[in-house]
Amino acid sequence: MQQLFCLPNDFTFLLFHFALMSEEKKLFKVTIDNITIEVEQGTTILQAARKIGGDVVPPAMCYYSKLKGSGGKCRTCLVRVAAGSTADPRPMPKLVASCRTNVMDGMIVESMTNNTVLDARKAVVEFLLINHPLDCPVCDQAGECDLQDLSYDHGREGTRYEFKRRTFERHNLGQYIQLHMTRCILCFRCVYAADQLTKKRVHGILDRGDHSEIATYIEKSLDNDFIGNVIDVCPVGALTDRTFRFKNRVWFTKPVDAHRNCPKCSGKVRLWLRGDEVLRVTARKDEWGEVEDFICNECRFEKKKATDWIIEGPTKVARHSVISAGHYVGVKKPHEALPEVMGGRKPKLVFDIHTVSDVNEPEVDLSLLPGPATSETFDGHPNAYGNNATDVKLGKGSNSKGTDSTNPNTP
Q: Is the pLDDT confidence value at 224 over 90?
């Protein structure tokens, strides 16, 4: 080593450079549900399972790979470690959270192949649904809700809970975001997102135990160029886009990928169209439901015209999702033989359906309405809109007895 440091500086640098290049990353072999894969040191069990894909991947409601410190809150990703490592093959005494447990060389993990794990997940889902309202018929998150998917895949058929549910009043966190705390599962994602994406976080978890809630304490508005991303990271309908509330169902819209030159963010978004109207703008998400690039409020809330964007094409939606209903991407159009039979002449158009149909009237722009459309909207008053019962304060007007989400006696 003494001779090495006596060499000229340039040559010494080259020796160390080639030594670092030749050093290979240490890989660990881990077996998950009888499938073996090699991953780098420091990889968690959940990340290793995602490399395998399929049913092996444990569900996750709080973990978010792009948010530092997330994970370990919801306990839905529990797995059993049947063998800790090659050096110490003893099993771990309890089920562990796969998002917080790093793999070891020779580790053997059981996820979908262990009945104890499946029973534990059912218990966790039942616990998450104890205070969660049956809001799916009126919730804007319906159709893209992680809790819906979780309860369908891992939940029980019914509930054993017989007590009054915990309820909270809704709060408007500024002009763009509404907080529906009754639906919240306290995953902490929105807190981490605000803490890491914005310059100043003004909301967090207040109180303890059953009284814990997401709040700003003095009902401040969430005003920041990137605060709209808390809507995308929320796995349930606790944080919703006020510009989209009760406008449409996601399975009636057509998602397309688009981009624009934005000085604040990447400008890569997903537009949700109904005809030519842009009803909603969100960030693009990957196969795990995580945002690829966080976008600014200007792209999300203020650019609601198709002319503001360069549309790249239809979004690839998983076929198991209800959003994919009626969306046929990559389908080969059948050959039209009628013009050939008619000597090259195209068939005559009897009438244009758009001239006789009253659906999607051109003067009605649902994306610009501050509330849900009513019958008056399509009866000569294109700017008319109504107030949904769930937006009325508890005990007043049409909400005198409470809705599904505010009535503590809801079964």
A: no
Q: Please report the DSSP string for 290-325 in residue order.
A: -BSS---HIIIII--SGGGSEEEEE----TTSGGGT
Q: Where are the domains of the chain?
A: 27-117, 129-246+370-411
Cβ-proximal residues to 353 (8 Å cutoff; 6+ apart), any chain: none
Q: pTM of the predicted model, to two decimals?
A: 0.77
Where b means 16+ CB within 10 Å and e means fewer, 253-279 reads bbbbbbbeeeeebbbbbbbbbbeebbb
Sign of CA dihedral 56, 61, 67, 72: negative
Asked if the domains 27-117 and 129-246+370-411 are classified in one and the same CATH topology, the answer is no
Percent of the chain at pLDDT > 90 equals: 37
Report how far residue 342's alpha carbon sits from residue 328's, in angstroms, rounded to the nearest whole number.
30
Q: For position 347, what pLDDT does the model report? A: 76
For residue 216, the model assigns a pLDDT of 78
Nearest to 182 by CA among 398, 390, 400: 390
Say which CATH topology domain 27-117 has.
Ubiquitin-like (UB roll) (3.10.20)
Q: Which CATH class is domain 129-246+370-411?
A: alpha beta
First to last CA, the chain: 75
Of 376, 397, 378, nearest to 386 (Cα)?
A: 376
Angle between helices 115-128 and 146-154 (to 10 degrees): 140
Q: How far apart are CA 109 and CA 101, in angstroms?
A: 11
C-alpha–C-alpha distance, residues 296 and 262, integer Å: 9
What count of other Cβ atoms lies within 10 Å of the Cβ of residue 55? 12
Strands 204-206 and 213-215: antiparallel
Place of tokens 């262990």: 114
Residue with tokens 């090259």: 344
Token pair of 30 as six digits:
């881990």
Rounded Cα distance, 173 and 178, in Å: 6
What is the rounded CA–CA span in Å between residue 262 and residue 265?
Answer: 6
Residue 181: CB atoms within 10 A of its CB come to 19
3-state SS, one letter per residue, for 329-364 = CCCCCCCCCHHHHCCCCCCCCCCCHHHHCCCCCCCC
Mean pLDDT, rounded, of the chain? 82
